[in-house]
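for the writeup, i need someone to sanity check this before i put it in the appendix. the sequnce is what the collaborator sent (i think, or maybe the updated version? ugh). structure was predicted straight from it, no edits. if anything looks off just tell me and ill rerun, i have time this weekend
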Amino acid sequence: MYAQLVNNLDELGFTDVEPYLSEYLTKASKEGISLLDSLIHISDREITLRNQRAAQIQVSVSHFPYIKTLDEFDYHFQPSVNKAEIKDLSTLRFIDKKENILFYGTPGTGKTHLATALGIEAARKRNITYFITCHDLIQTLRKAHDENRLEARLKHFSKYKLLIIDEIGYLPVDKTGANLFFQLIAKRYEHNSTIITTNQPFSKWGEVFSDATLANAILDRLLHHSHVVKMVGPSYRTKDYYDLVDPEDK
């Protein structure tokens, strides 16, 4: 009978139950746990495990550059970041409200860390999420445009509940690239959330995108319904160096 039960559970896709089942049934028998309570316990455990697997899969396909959490962020090293604000953003209400987040600051201040950590939180809650650098995104859109499949690619990037675009301003964008980028932002506007990281003040985006009008149109849609997090301070990449320097020399 036990072998038949195991086979039936495998047939139903309850693949994580078998290693645990024998021990639990023994416990249930000794403690007089009812059949109904046993079934609820086993099914709850299976649901939890399936949700964990689904969350892991969603994180793995989101193309994050690394796995970092909000707990790993050093607020003492970057006191300009409001911990309470980041904690509020981690509730993911901004996704429900289709709001954007723009992290602005000098290189190395942790913009990508926070963007990635929020993205991981979103992915773990089963929100389809994708991370891409601005340069790679524009190159992808440009290639699709040249191959007459731009609309399909725009639709693809528009479907994500959360799209993270990293490093705006690190490399210049020509007018064609700016136009393609604008089309995507316009398509996502008030439909899904976008997280941006940039090292350039918004007043310089006209130079970044080689066209002040397009830059203003992009910013208009990104900044409407948005949270702007300004990050100032030393670079994490030189943190170890700062730890070695005499305090009077800093």
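Residues 141 and 150 are 6 Å apart (CA to CA). The chain has a mean pLDDT of 92.
thx in advance!!
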